[in-house]
Amino acid sequence: xxxxxxxxxxxxxxxxxxxxxxxxxxxxxxxxxxxxxxxxxxxxxxxxxxxxxxxxxxxxxxxxxxxxxxxxxxxxxxxxxxxxxxxxxxxxxxxxxxxxxxxxxxxxxxxxxxxxxxxxxxxxxxxxxxxxxxxxxxxxxxxx
Length: 144
Known about the structure:
Layout: H1 9-23, H2 26-29, H3 33-44, E1 50-51, H4 52-59, H5 63-75, E2 79-84, E3 87-95, H6 97-117, H7 123-138
Antiparallel strand pairs: 1-3, 2-3
Helix pairs in contact: 3-6
């Protein structure tokens, strides 16, 4: 595939995402991809925790599947849910120290996968790609 005949950027991103997902196995990460993504989101809100509903929105998960995922993370001692003291109807989810350690191991695995998937890019090109992706995500309401 040459650049002149390549499909649009979004199609290419989806294809690259599928390659990344196939290579990001439980063996490589030490956890499933959805657990990894949930812990990354929780770590981004590490000090105050994250409302359970907001986490579900960030992950694009319905409430039932999110509860199942959180049950697994809690059973493994990686995250915890607690009632929001300001609104007892809401739960706040927070990553636990064991979750941070598991996430660090998973990120080392993800770095290896990234190295494989982006091997055709120079370090400068990879840095540019990362900056552009961050900028694109910053422009999305759900990423804030």
